[in-house]
Design a protein that fits this description.
Number of domains: 2
Order of helices and strands: EEHHEHEHHHHHHHH
Shape: globular
Length: about 230
């Protein structure tokens, strides 16, 4: 199932890289959510229509967060040419964690240190920082799986060099992660669709996802009050 959210919210206070996980960001003043089990072309084609509900036009300078799926960024460039994209920090850190474990093993102090070093470089310097950390690690990566893990991390991040703008985002009080999406997936869709023993036909799952999206966006009452 694919899930999307458009939202309007004010910027928060400027933050340093060390505050990335603890800072407070204002809640959205308005948001709309949508979800469905459908191909990515159909899903992306709905973006401008959904965005228009908040008065967001295709030429808007909106901010966008997503994982590394190529189709998302291609469709974003197509539908919102002036959007400023950021690769979701939590997805990036999952890849960093996988590379660290390949280098130093599961749950070791060395793994923790390398993850912290890589995260700090990402937050402070973006692609240049993480590329330097990866290159330094190659010196001691003597086993093939170690070298492969570092190469995979670099290959994942390189196409998104301009989307690793975390320092700038933090300095302007803006999010660097897709928490709105994760909240919708976990609390309003997954919790309902993944109940123990539940089985869904795709049309029914999509209908339930629509209802969950309405609740998440605080539009339940408005939707039923306006049948058109």
């Amino acid at each position: 199932m694919r899930v999307g959210v458009f939202a309007k919210r004010a910027a928060g206070a400027p933050a340093q890289a060390s505050e990335w996980a603890t800072r407070k960001i204002p809640s959205p003043a308005a948001r709309v959510a949508f979800a469905a089990i459908e191909d990515h072309e159909t899903f992306a084609a709905r973006w401008p229509v959904v965005a228009s509900r908040l008065g967001i036009r295709p030429n808007a300078r909106l901010d966008a967060w997503a994982d590394g799926a190529r189709w998302i960024w291609e469709r974003l460039d197509f539908h919102f040419a002036f959007a400023r994209g950021t690769l979701d920090i939590y997805h990036v850190l999952e890849h960093v964690s996988a590379a660290a474990k390949s280098q130093f093993g599961e749950g070791t102090a060395a793994t923790e240190r390398w993850q912290e070093q890589a995260r700090n470089a990402l937050l402070a310097e973006g692609f240049a920082g993480i590329e330097r950390v990866i290159d330094q690690a190659r010196v001691t990566a003597v086993r093939a799986p170690q070298r492969a893990a570092l190469s995979q991390l670099a290959e994942y991040l390189r196409p998104h060099a301009r989307h690793l703008n975390y320092a700038e985002r933090l300095a302007t009080g803006r999010p660097i992660g897709s928490g709105l999406i994760e909240g919708a997936c976990k609390n309003y869709l997954g919790r309902r669709l993944k109940q123990t023993g539940a089985r869904w036909l795709i049309p029914n799952a999509n209908r339930m996802a629509t209802l969950g999206s309405l609740v998440y966006a605080d539009q339940w009452t408005d939707y039923w009050a306006n049948p058109n």
